[in-house]
Amino acid sequence: IFCGRFSTVQKRPQKIVGLKGKRQVGTITSGERGVNTTMVVCVNAAGVYVPPMIIFKRKRWNDDLKVGAPSGSLVTISDTGYINSELFLEWLRHFTSHINVSKNKKVLLLLDGHTTHSKNLEAVEFAREHGIILLQLP
């Protein structure tokens, strides 16, 4: 049994706004509300883990994004910094390359109910073909 977790963090560039000479000032963030980075991690109770997938918000790839990433990590980009259906399928392929799974040796993969996995027929078929039983929790 494996648990896949998708977590997004937001780096917010902060600007300080205040009148000259005032001791109390407020802060505002840019209209963009920051830059998203998503990390997908997966582990089981026996301590077996899949190297993470890290998704940066970018339009163009830069090899420097891999610098400092854990060994075996899948580092990629998306326009939003969030996972999407295409990237979820890419992560499933990454998952199967690190876990001993087959139609005869199935694994249960627990996921949240996000639409990138629940409404992704290609990913569901891929999982079925490779012995992965997907169970989505609300």
Automatic annotation (TrEMBL):
One of its GO terms (molecular function) is DNA binding. Residues 37-138 form the DDE-1 domain. GO terms for cellular component: nucleus. Transmembrane segments: none annotated. InterPro entries: CenT-Element_Derived, DDE_SF_endonuclease_dom. It comes from the Eukaryota. This is DDE-1 domain-containing protein.
